[in-house]
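User: Run a structure prediction on this.
Assistant: Running it now.
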Amino acid sequence: MKSSRSGSIAAHAVSYGGTILFALPVYILINLAIRPVNNLRPAYVPTAGPTLENFAGAWKESTLPTAILTSVIITAVSCIVILVIATMAAYPLARSTARLSNITFYFFLIGLLLPFQVAMLPLYLTMRDVHLLGSIWSLIILYAGAQMPFSIF
């Protein structure tokens, strides 16, 4: 009984130590984010006068609003394309009992097994040849195509 209690105390001590070890960088990050620019105290010392001016300055000086809007557009269009195409492909595969249906089903199942790195170079070359590099359409096509086997299965 005594060794069980000491083992439990040791397990709790290790758990608390690990929690502190992983939470400390998060605390330092938040502490530095809300600290005024002229405050030069060490990062682990709590901030005396927290402020959100750093966030406002970063929002104004960066291109973050445009990047967020672009990400939302790419995500929304990709999800719509995946939903429409995967639904149209999955319904006949689920309802049909023909032999070709099983072959097609296994074709999509094989798509789940292929790593992305196998298709990365041919995809890049294709996007380059059709002049889609650097456009949001290349990302939409890439995301929709990469998620199609998962969506259909």
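The helical segments are 2-33, 53-61, 64-95, 99-113, 116-129, 136-152.
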